[in-house]
Specification:
176 residues; 6 helices; single chain; Maf protein; alpha+beta; 5 strands
């Protein structure tokens, strides 16, 4: 959605990458997954420019990925309620003769959430495929009290960082 809104031509190609957290720092984890996704896509299409990204939510030494169930979504939302967490995204670009990745971190503060509000939001289905079990651009906007940093990072892809990677590739002689 974000790339389309910018008029960027692309083809989505989800990659089968193991997204298991191995206890590393959230920044290392997000960067690793972004590189693995872009690298897997580039292995299939070696002359293409492949952009990979992954986002996690981090708080108190825990990394919250996508919830596996509605019950897990409710647990994540209770954990985030009334607190400030980090949204950490890795963005990687792999193409002919080029491989680079960056990490973007944004701080998000949640309002204190009532149990009924958490249950209603989890039941909406919106948290199902979202890191940290929420989508700040959708119904989840009502959960958020404040955002410090890159809004686009929180809603799916830090566009400025992606643009920087393509510009770096172009400076190196690529078509990025």
């Amino acid at each position: 959605m974000l790339l389309r809104a910018q008029g960027v031509p692309f083809r989505a190609a989800p990659q089968d990458v193991d997204e298991t957290w191995r206890g590393e720092a959230p920044e290392t984890f997000a960067r690793r997954l972004a590189l693995e996704k872009a690298g897997a896509a580039a292995a299939r299409r070696p002359r293409a420019w492949c952009l990979g990204a992954d986002t996690v939510v981090a708080l108190d030494g825990r990394v919250l990925g996508k919830p596996g169930s509605r019950a897990e979504a409710r647990r994540m939302l209770r954990f985030l309620s009334g607190r400030t967490h980090r949204v950490v995204s890795g963005v990687a670009l792999v193409g002919p003769g080029f491989r680079s990745a960056r990490v973007v971190t944004t701080r998000v503060r949640f309002r204190r959430l009532a149990a009924a509000e958490i249950a209603r939001y989890a039941a909406s289905g919106e948290p199902d495929d979202r890191a940290g079990a929420y989508a700040a651009q959708g119904l989840g906007a009502t959960l958020v009290a404040a955002i410090e940093g890159d809004w686009f990072n929180v809603v799916g892809l830090p566009l400025g960082t992606a643009r920087e990677l393509f510009a770096a590739a172009a400076r190196r002689g690529g078509r990025g």
